[in-house]
Amino acid sequence: MGERFNMGLWHLEPLVIAIDGLMLMSIAVYAFVNGLKGLASGGQPVEFGPALIYAGVTLAICASMALFGRRRNRTLQSGLIALDVKAWIMSSSITGALLLAFVLGLLLRGTQGAWLLPYVDPMTLVVVSLAIIPAPLREVWQAIREILLVTPVELRAQVEEVARRVAHEQGFLGHRTYVAEFGRAVQIELYFVVPRGFPPRPLEEWDALRDHVGEAIGGVERHRWLTVLFTTDLEWAE
Q1: Among 147, 173, 206, where does a domain finish?
Q2: What's residue 236's pLDDT?
Q3: Distance CA 129, CA 26 (A)
């Protein structure tokens, strides 16, 4: 990977998140449409006994996977895993709602509300699907922003503040900052405009200044691609 993908494969994460999120929303829309069709066709009979067992087992599996993924992601901090956890939560929500609906169906048997039994399954599907369709929207929107390399406002402000302070302390003429975020990776380019005839310094001092800038910006170093350059020609920074 180092030879062919020098900057890693972080740029693939937002792409996968966007596709995965759109697929989840499409599945929810499909379930919503199927529920509407079921209601329009007069509902469908359901064997609530086997359905209860199936829903209970499925709910246990989905909830366990969501809990496991969330616990693991506390360390990994992956947007992809976070979306996968949300998918398991969505599945748990649908299955849990169906489980409650099936219990309600059992209670309605032999009562005046028995005519509602064929509508229990499609009605539950419509309500739950409508509720969870917007769930992945935030992740999809964030992924699209990262694919388009939209500059994160807060990070840009932080980098600008550090660059402004360093330029003032060192007597530089100005600076230019370029910031992009994709997946867990952050790419930062900082150009400091040094006055012509600036007193020469050993390379060790420039390296120490770079280290100072990196420490001031912060963040996880293995996920950060930081470039700090010094020039007397503003065109190199534009």
Answers
A1: 147
A2: 85
A3: 10
